[in-house]
Structures are given as C-alpha cells and as structure tokens.
Amino acid sequence: MALGGARSQSFATFLILCPTSFFLGILFSLFPYDYPLLWTASTPTEANFLSAENHLRFLHASPPIIARILHIVIVVGLLGFFIKLYRPSESNMLFDGASLVLYMCGFVVYMANIVKGLRVVSSGKYDVELVEGELGVGNRDTNPGDGNLLGRNDSLKVLSASNTILALVLVGVLVLQAGQWYAERKQIQETEQMEKENVIAGKGSAATQRTGGGKKKL
Predict the structure, then answer these.
(1) CA nearest to 161, candidates 54, 58, 27
(2) Angle made by CA atoms 125, 163, 57, in degrees to the nearest 5
(3) CA nearest 92: which of 1, 12, 193?
C-alpha cells in the first residue's frame, strides 16, 4: 500500500513539474522580446516595441488548437495537485498547498493580465479597450487619449512585467516541489538510520543476555 502511494505521489509530482516547466519554456521564448523593454539601462527603441507587438499579435492569431493545448496543460497541472492533496500528509499540506497557491496566482496573472493584454495588442486599440473597461466599472469621465490611461508602450511593458511575475511564480512552484523531495528524502534517511541503530542495539542486547546467561551456568 505504501509502495502504491509512493508511486501515485511520484506520478502526481510528474504531472506538476511537466506543465510548470512547459510554461517556463514558453516564457523563456518571450524573454528576447521582454528584455529590451524592462531589463536594459537604455531606453527601449521603437524597433523593440514593434518587434514585441508583432510577436504578440502573431501569438494571439495562432490557431485555436494552440490555446486548447495550453489550457489542457494547465488542467494537467491542477490534476497533479489534486492527486497529491487527496488524503494529504503534513508534507503535502505544507509544500503542495503552497505550490497550489502559487500555481493559482500564476493562473490569475495569466487570465487577468496576459490574456487581456494579448487581446488589446491584437486589436491595436489600447485607449479604446481601456476606456471600455473603465466604463464597465462606472467611470463615465474617461475619454480616449487621457493621460491616466496606458498607451501602447506602457501596455507592452505591463505585459512583459506580467511574464516576469508569472515566471517567478512558476519557479516558486519548482522550488517548493524540490524542497518537498529533499525533506522526504532526509526523513527516509533518518528513519533508515534509526532502524539500523535499533537493530544494532537489539543485537548488542541479545549478545549481552547470552553472555550473562553463560556466566550464570558456569
């Protein structure tokens, strides 16, 4: 039973690590476009913004099967968490619970910032999209072109920052899963060491009893 549980936990960990690494790979492929916008000391050029904008439009115009595969991979990661948190141990509650929180934070960033940002970039109507959002929450004094709205360049920077936040969150998931593996490994080693010490102590006690019994007979 313990062996089956260990195999189930290993398979669930595999279901978590694969989607997380997959998403980090996607974010890494976007890093050449994000780097000039956020991580250089020099001011981003128009060519940097244009290349990032064209790439994001290309991504948003991908066939629907691409988005479906992405969403299936997200569900696979959630399935791994649900398997590990079914009848959880103390280790599962600590490490997997925190990992699930980070995973869901990443999902919120994806839905709230990245998906919406891709739609805005693809439409090319930055101020109009933002005005519609403001009107949706009752701000009737907002007009296109107002200074308090994010324009094209700022919107692209926000998308790049969202990618960075998402990457950090996913790295946190990997770190927590690695921490859980290390903690469980150390626990197994300590248990094995205690068992060996108990066996040695038992053998020593048995030998002492045999020696004492032999002396009494003499």
Answers:
(1) 27
(2) 35
(3) 12
Q: Which two tokens stand for residue 69?
A: 């595969």
pTM of the predicted model as reported, rounded to 2 decimal places: 0.77
Asked whether 161 and 168 are in contact (CB, 8 A), the reply is no
Give residues with Cβ within 8 angstroms of 22, minimum separation 6. Answer: 73
Residue 38: CA atoms inside 13 Å, Cβ hemisphere, count?
19
- Note the maximum CA span of the chain: 108
In sequence order, what DSSP letters do the residues of 90-122 get, joined into one string?
HHIIIIIHHHHHHHHHHHHHIIIIIIHHHHHHH
pLDDT tens-place string over residues 61-85: 999 999 999 999 999 999 999 998 8
Spatial separation of the C-alpha atoms in residues 178 and 164, rounded to whole Å: 21
Q: How crowded is residue 174: how many other Cβ atoms within 10 Å of its Cβ?
A: 16
Q: Is 20 in contact with 173 (CB distance < 8 Å)?
A: yes
169 Cβ contact list (under 8 Å, min separation 6): 102, 103, 105, 106, 109
**With helix as H, strand as E and coil as C, how does 118-175 read?**
HHHHHHCCHHHHHHHHHHHCCCCCCCCCCCCCCCHHHHHHHHHHHHHHHHHHHHHHHH
Return the number of other C-beta atoms located less than 10 Å from residue 157's C-beta. Answer: 17
Per-residue pLDDT reduced to its tens digit, 85-126: 887 777 778 888 999 999 999 999 999 999 999 999 988 887
- Would you call 85 helix, strand, or coil by DSSP? coil
